[in-house]
Every structure is written in structure tokens, then in C-alpha cells.
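Still learning. Show one?

>
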Amino acid sequence: MSKAALAKVLSALEILVLEYQDDQSFQVIGHLPSWYRSLMGANQEPSAVIYLADAFPFLTYFLDDALQFWQTEQEQVLKSGLWVEVDQSGTEIPLEASALGLDDQRIILIALSQTTYTEKSVLIQQGRENALAQSAERKRAAEQLRHSIFYDWLTELPNQSFIRLRLVDALSQTKTGPDGSFALLYIDIKHFKAINTRLGLWAGDQLLMMVAQRLSELLRPDDIAARFGGDDFVVLLRPVDGEQETRKITEKIQRHLLVPYAIHSQDIHIQFDMGIAMGSSLYQQPEDLIRDACTALEYAKSHGAENYAIFHQTMHLQSLTRMQLEHDLSRAVWQNELRVCYQPIISLADGSLQAFEALVRWQHPTLGLLSPDQFIAIAEDSGLIIPIGAWILREACEQIHKWRNQTHLPLSMHVNLSARQLDQLDLLDSIRGILAETQLDPRGLKLEITETMVFNNLEYAAAMLRQIKGLGIQLSMDDFGTGYASLSYLHQLPVDNLKIDRSFVETIDTSGTESEIIQAVIQLAHSLNIDVVAEGVETVEQANRLKNLGCEYAQGYLFAKPMEPGQIEKVLHKNFASLFDAVQV
């Protein structure tokens, strides 16, 4: 039947002609019968867009089935249906419809009318309950499908698909409104994989649900929080009055998220990194906004003392530089571009050489010599710290074994252990293998950990450290003092010494407060039979003040800078007492 012929037939009937739209609705383009108004309300105009799920639940599925049939069979076959709908007053209205696919433009003409055929009344009566039940069930199924498409199954937050649609809406408003009226906050949980490794996948899921709940509690009426995937969340903040208000909201979210999480009867301390992109009319697609929020997130990981950053254009270049460094770093070990330097650790009692700290440097082929601050964070984030850390440990163990044999002194080597390494399932086997390969007495090795590494999950860290100590290795707490609140946890860790952070040492000769803090730390350490090493000692006054406070060991530029192995050979038998014994405090 041609379109013209069909139109002529339809024009003679009491019908409703609908045209399929891209937004999955049907536009009324034909006669609007009086009984239809009882369903939708008297104010409904023929030109309005009709959402059939609201008006004719069963008809919606009839049309969907017809569409699928035409798309599959590619035939113009007239399909008919008969069912019962219920209007707003609860009155049952028996309806019948015919549908025909006209072309490949997905345009559908529907002949819909209220049936009065008596011979069909029995069929209608028998099918009434089934039709209504099926309609309700299909509506529920449709809602479940919609929920699965737009919501995260674990946290019940909106998902990536949902937030992208809302970003389209937010970006459209920037075309007429001011820039900075909304912001996208991208949130990453630090070391989330460690939670799964240490406590199991169930604990990881619990943490994600708790984070989602806390975010939901902080939302303002128009804000939207979503799980973007894995351990990443995003929050669409709107409205906001520029960067200043965005910072205030972000810092409030930070404080709320940093409260410990009770999992497996443990208080788990979690850190977060956050990147922010401010809404702007310059953005054309949601992906551009998300990209810049992620760029700001990466910047925060490597630069942000506040653990969050707002995107600015200069970050693009920095992001590209970081990507290039990560690429270059992946081959640095195999290209022999890494170097290990060693800084002496001195006894403040008699100035004798006691130990060394292994510090890695990168001799980049084009950028020159890079310090750890320029690439270790990249190694941590990318996972390259695992092979790099193993290489450093092997080099350091081999070197200290050589120096112990040369001097016949019980020298030891301090080597930093990263958070990623502590989470390695085969860490103990790796350490055993390196000790055996280098033939180093385990007592000649001290592994350094940081407060943050153990504070995040004290019970797991304590258990792992006890296993490491069981190998005969000593343990040192590095950068102690930066997490001063964790002093109360120190007795739970099997550490042999702690290193006071340089930020306390540098003002010890001018600040009474810093001296009191250091004295308290030293007294606590001694009460637990733990020795103390002071980092960053650069003046005679600092060395003597530390000595008088009872600090056993020190390292810093006053004694020696980090040196190549060949330079260390010259100081193996040196005594450093003359550098600080000359002045007494």
C-alpha cells in the first residue's frame, strides 16, 4: 500500500497518527479523538510531543515489537493489536491499533481507535487482567533497564553514562550564562588496590559504598555525584560562584572523606586526590571537561600539597611532559640510566660512620640528572616502582656487602620501601632472593617505610613488617613527625629506629616549639627502645642541639651530600666528630 493510499484510508477513520522521533517519543500529526483527551487531559494539544509510556503503556511495547520486526524482516507488513488501557479516572478503554513501517527513516503511522465491536468483547474481557498485568510488568522492566543503564550496581550512584548527559545539559547553559557557573570534581582513591590486596575484594566494595554514601550526604540540591568507574568518582557542582566557592566545597568534601572508615573492625585511613575543571563556554563536549579534570587530578598527585588542583591551560604541557617521562622511565632500568647515590649516616656520640641511605638518581638522556622528586611519583602511579625498587635494593645490597667486607665494620644500608612494594604479594620472596644473590647478612639492611604507608592500614602493615623483620632485617620509620598524630600507634610497629623529618630539624636552633616536639619524639622512641636519626642536618648548631637532646644519629649536608660509590670509598674510614664537637650548646 502506498503512503498516499494509506493516508486516504486513515483519513476516513477516527484515528491518531503518530510520527517516531529521535528522542524515542511520538509526535501527534493527525486527528486527536475525544477519548484520547480523557487519557491525557483536556489541555493536550495535537502538536504536543507524547511520551507513550505515560499515555498508553501497552501500546509502547506493541510499537517496539513492530519496529523490531520491520528492522529485522525489512518488510512493510501491517500489524494489529488489541488491548485495554485505563484513563485517569480508572475507566477501562478497549483499544485496537494498526501499525505500518513506511521506510528506513523509522517513521511510523499508527491507526489507533476505541473498539466497539461486540464480537471482540469476549476477547477483551478475557485479556483485560492479563493486558494490565503485562503492561505494569513491562513498565517495571523498562525502569529496571533504565536503572541498569544509568546507575552503578554497587553504590547506587549515577554512572558515567548519566553524568555525561548532565554535562551536556550543563555545557549548553554556559552558552548563555557566565563561565565558572559549574565545576566537575574528579576524585581518585589513593592506593585502592592495596585495600583489595590486604583485606579482600569485599572490603574494597565496602569502601566504595561508604565513599558513595558520604558524597551523597554532602550534595546540594542540584549537585550530582557519580561513580565513574573503578575507584573513581565525579561530582558535578552547580551552581558555583567561580573558583573560590569551588575550593571551599572541595575542601569540605575532603574533610568529610578523610574521616577513617570502619571495615573489618578496623579504622582504615584513606587518602584522596582530586582534580577540578571549571565549566566554560570553550568546552564543546563532556569528554573535554572530563579530560581536563583528569589532567588536574594528575597534577594534584605530583604537585598538590592540598591533594587537589583546579585545571589551568599550563597543565596540558605539564601533562604531556609527565606522559613522556613515564614513557622514558619505563626503559630507564634496562638502558642503565638509573644511578644509586649514598648519603652517610653519622653517630652523634662519636662522629663515626654508621650507615648509608641509598638514593636513586636518573641520568636522563636529554634532561640530564633528575632527582627522585622529579620521577618517583610517576613511578609510583604507573607501577614502575616495582621493578625500579627491586633494582635499587639489589644495587644497594651489593654495595653495602662490599663495604662491610672492606672495612670489617657492621655498616648498614637504608633503602626506601614504597607503598606499592609493601602491597606486593611476593615481596618477601623478592627480598629473600636479593639477599641470597648479593650474599648480604640481613642485619646489614634497613628498610625505610613512611608513616602514611602504615597509617592507612595499621593492622596489615604491622603484620607485613613483622614478617620482614623475621628475615633478620631492621626497619626504620622515615619522615617521622609529618604525621605527628600517629605517635600513639608507634608501639604497634616493629621498627628499630625512626627518622625525624627535616622540616623539624631546620628550625631547631631558632624555634623552641620544634625543640620540644623533637624532644618528645626522642623520649617516646627511647621508651620503646627505638633509636632516632635526624634528617637534613646542615649546621653545627643543629647537630649539637640534637646530640644534647639525646638523638643518636644524623645525616645531612653538614656531613656529606649523596655521593657516587667511588666517592664513598674516600670516607669509609673517616670520623666526622670534628664537624660538630667544636661548638657546644
Remarks:
- The longest strand covers residues 353-364.
- The two ends are 108 Å apart (CA to CA).
- The chain has a mean pLDDT of 78.
- The first helix runs from residue 3 to 10.
